[in-house]
Amino acid sequence: MIDKVTGAGVQPSAAQLKTLIDLESRFQPKLSGLRLIECAQDNGLRMTAKLRELEVKDLLSLSRFFGFSSETFSLAVSLLDRFLSVMKIQPKHLSCVGLCCFYIAVKSSEEEKNVPLANDLIRISQNRFTVSDMMRMEKIIMEKLYWKVKAPTALHFLRLIHSHIQEQLDSER
Predict the structure, then answer these.
(1) Residues 6 or more apart whose Cβ sits within 8 Å of residue 91
(2) Domains within the chain, CATH numbers bracketed
(3) Closest C-alpha to 80, from 66, 94, 64, 68
(4) Which of 9, 24, 30, 118 has the fewest CB atoms within 10 Å, measured from its CB?
């Protein structure tokens, strides 16, 4: 559904923007969960905005390392935020959660031949958990997100708005 609204060659319109907004409302992270993260003090026992920010930087590094698309990175961050907004996790589990969100995004967005093995992801990211830990966490994430992976991201909105602006500029020439 998202590809029909934001795919290549799609002309932006108010209807497309409304469709994207309607879709987004079903996938947005719960504000109450995100507020808890924003307000949390760093005592080593609770998630904080700073820890989330560091995890997002790790996801960006992994995306760049593997040469994955911006869509993959954006989806991984969306999955991370959606999961963190519904589950309280300890900071020690954040790297596993982040890597699993990345892995889910990769499997959803990239060609199958480009999807790295879980073993390789763990090794490259220098994490200290096992493939079975990762598979268990992936299942938990998917269950908590009701198996709904593809969701509108900020990137979808940016691309739609950018193409609309570009179209307006082109028509003025």
Answers:
(1) 44, 45, 46, 47, 48, 51
(2) 29-159 (1.10.472.10)
(3) 94
(4) 9
